[in-house]
Amino acid sequence: MRLKDLGEFNFINRISKTIKLSSRVIKGIGDDAAVLRHTKDKYLLFTADMLVEGKHFHKGAKAGLVGGKALSCSVSDIAAMGGVPKFAVISIGLPGSLGLKYADGIYKGIKKAADRFGVDLVGGDTVGSEKIIINIALTGEVEKKSLALRSNAEENDAIFVTGNIGGSIKLKHLNFTPRLKEARFLVKNFTVNSMIDISDGLLADLGRILKESGKGAIIYESAIPVSKNALGFDSAVRDGEDFELIFTLPESSACRLKKFWPFKTKISEIGRICSFRKGFFLVRKNGKSERIKPAGFTHF
């Protein structure tokens, strides 16, 4: 069997079954970041993201945007856990033929993002490679009472999404803002039952919340905020690299959230969590309901 026959997430599940964790680990594989014991009041968060030329950015993309994206992907993971990013190490593979100006530009982009989000760059590794490869490992902290996981969605929760969905093909994937401030506001002021950032597509990532929580959902096409740069609705909800947040919270909190939301970043209520037996459904604009699979971007 080849990797592309097994699929990316089946491969991850295959690996996770072989790993035994100590009591120091609160949450391992299966969320946006690992959750580790840390202090009396806080957990340590630990995540890593890798960018590969030709997969996550095209040759010739602006170096500063590539570097900024490399760190921002990991910051988005920390945000999805309700946390604050702290320290990063950068491992990078570069072709020997690459111009020094471009290499400097990548690091300038990383540093700019680090300054913006309060991240200390504390080390890493540099190797030669045929293509540009950037891997960033990032730690963060979150108050124990503020931790948001994928696995705690409750029946009748309202499902929300930040920003607009789709448009990565128009370079949104290189120029986005991790919803760090928005996530911190949410976990500080509301009971957020589950949260995830959208990296592989709205349907795929909402599907991960449903799988981890053992729940179903009903979402409405008319309520989903599709970007004007998206190539239609179906593309918008499957293409990925939006780096917006999907989160669920009790229905009783939905009205209060809309009333007191303080950011220019919009939020949209797109559906409800339901029981697992009811499945995952999309109600189209014409009123017809269809069972859907949480398909999105995969590497294999």
How many domains comprise the coordinates? Answer: 2
- Uncertain regions: pLDDT < 50 for 5+ in a row? none
CATH topology of the largest domain: 60s Ribosomal Protein L30, Chain: A
Let me know the number of strands: 13
User: How would you state the average pLDDT, rounded?
Assistant: 93
Kindly state the percentage of residues in helix. 25-40%
**Could you describe the largest sheet, including whether it forms a barrel?**
7 strands, mixed
Rg over CA atoms, rounded to whole Å, is 19 Å
According to CATH, the homologous superfamily of the largest domain is PurM-like, N-terminal domain
The total count of helices amounts to 8
Biggest sheet: strand arrangement = 8-10-7-11-9-12-13
Describe what you observe in this structure.
The protein is of the alpha+beta class. It has 2 domains: 3-145, PurM-like, N-terminal domain (60s Ribosomal Protein L30, Chain: A); 149-291, Phosphoribosyl-aminoimidazole Synthetase, Chain A, domain 2. 28% of the residues lie in helices and 28% in strands. It contains 8 helices and 13 strands. The chain has helices spanning 3-6, 8-16, 63-80, 100-117, 180-189, 202-213, 233-236, 251-260, and strands spanning 25-27, 34-37, 42-52, 84-94, 120-128, 133-143, 158-162, 194-197, 215-220, 245-249, 267-275, 280-283, 289-291. It has a 7-stranded mixed sheet with strand order 8-10-7-11-9-12-13, with helices on both faces. The protein has a 6-stranded mixed sheet with strand order 1-2-3-6-4-5. Strand 1 and strand 2 (34-37) form a beta hairpin. Helix 3 (63-80) packs parallel to helix 5 (180-189).
